[in-house]
Amino acid sequence: MALETRTVFALIGGTFLLLGIGLHANDRTGSGLLCFTIGFVFSGGWAFLGMALAQQGVGTTPPKTYLSGGMAAVTLALYFGIRTHETLFDR
Predict the structure, then answer these.
(1) Whole-prediction pTM value?
(2) From 24-28, 80-84, 86-90, the region with the lowest mean pLDDT
C-alpha cells in the first residue's frame, strides 16, 4: 500500500513542479510559485514515506538518504510558500 502511495506522491509532485516551471517561464510568477510549493510538499511526503519504508527494511536505500531529501523538499516548500504569499497577497 505504501509503495503505491509513494508512486502517486511522486507523480503528483513531479507534475506540479513541471507545471510551476511552465507557469513561471510564462511570467505567471505567483501561480508558478504556488505550483512549486505544492510540488515540493508532495516531494517531501514521498521522501518521508520512503524513509519509513527503509526503516522497516522494505528498501535497500538507507533511511538517512530519504531524510535529507525530505528536509530539502520541506525547506524549498517553505521558501516557495513565502515567496508565493509575497507575490500574490502583498499587492
Answers:
(1) 0.82
(2) 86-90
